[in-house]
Design goal:
By secondary structure, the protein is of the alpha/beta class. It is built from 13 helices and 6 strands. About 45% of the residues lie in helices and about 10% in strands. A 6-stranded mixed sheet has the order 1-3-2-4-5-6, sandwiched between helices.
Length: about 300
């Protein structure tokens, strides 16, 4: 931080002297030396434990301000030897949301309706039901043989696969918008019909791209839900995948697509389209392909 008033804005107080009092420092100029909000917390803890000049409230006053700036569960306090009831209930609610995300059924009609008329084809993995899918990850990476025969082969530049993964909620809420925004940036690309895949892992895209003859595959998949996010969408890009041989080192991934808490649709589409274009130029993805869009934006701002 270079300005004390910036700290005051983050802390949500009207007067910078309040920040100094909360942080337990003697002079407001000390607050300007703090590099981030975590530093404010560390100073407050030290100030609250100190003697003369320490803030009367210490961390008790500061933690609520800090919690407004992050989804991390910080400074929850204690009720005896346990968490306060409200925080314990919050954890239980987050766990229930994560379980619901994993077990909620995929609704391909809902995704197709949001694709603005883009042609679609539906497939299933070799995992016949959700329980099998969760217990046998290998089956989620292989196409159902019957569905494989229905895939249209062609000279495609890219095939988009929308896969339920471990969070159908993420796919229902975000996949169509990300796909539309990305496709709008690919005017000169031959885009295959969108594949809606049920009981699917990321590597199912390898099987699909190989069967359809697509040079690139982009898998939009529901990511494993956590205790702070049950609706996170991931986008995995792979060039010329070979089923059973392509590894995670051969892929690029954009994670945490879920506005407003995560990556916004337009930002994700811009990064994804840039990676796709570069992958086509280089003929590779994975560890040999880097996302340089942020570097370009930074240079533009400097110049």
């Amino acid at each position: 931080m270079t300005d004390v008033t910036e700290v005051a804005e983050i802390a949500g107080v009207a007067d910078v002297t309040e920040v100094a009092e909360i942080a337990g420092v003697a002079d407001v100029t000390e607050v300007a030396e703090m590099t981030d909000v975590a530093d404010v917390a560390r100073r407050a803890e030290a100030g609250g434990a100190g003697a003369a000049g320490a803030a009367s409230g210490g961390l008790d006053e500061l933690w609520p301000l800090l919690r407004r700036r992050t989804q991390a569960r910080i400074g929850l306090g204690r009720a005896g030897s346990a968490l306060p009831t409200r925080h314990r209930l919050g954890l239980q609610a987050a766990h229930a949301a994560a379980r619901d995300a994993v077990h909620s059924p995929f609704e391909p009609d809902r995704v197709a309706a949001g694709l603005a008329g883009l042609p679609t084809v539906r497939v299933r993995s070799a995992a016949g039901d959700r329980l099998t899918y969760l217990q046998r990850p290998d089956l989620g990476r292989r196409l159902d043989p019957v569905d494989r025969a229905h895939l249209p082969a062609g000279d495609w530049d890219v095939v988009f696969v929308v896969a339920d993964g471990l969070s159908s909620r993420a796919v229902h809420e975000h996949a169509a918008a990300v796909l539309r925004a990305t496709a709008a940036r690919l005017a000169d690309w031959r885009i295959a019909p969108v594949v809606l895949a049920e009981q699917a892992r990321v590597a199912l895209g390898d099987d699909i791209a190989h069967a359809m003859g697509a040079a690139l595959v982009v898998v939009l998949v529901g990511e494993r839900p956590g205790m702070s996010a049950a609706d996170s969408l991931g986008a995995y890009l792979t060039y010329r995948p070979v089923p059973g041989l392509t590894t995670d080192a051969d892929r690029n991934c954009l994670s945490n697509i879920r506005p407003p808490r995560g990556l916004a649709y337009e930002a994700a589409a811009g990064k994804l389209a840039a990676l796709m274009g570069r992958a086509r130029e280089l003929g590779r993805t994975g560890v040999q392909l880097k996302d340089e869009t942020d570097h370009v934006n930074l240079i533009d701002r400097i110049l």
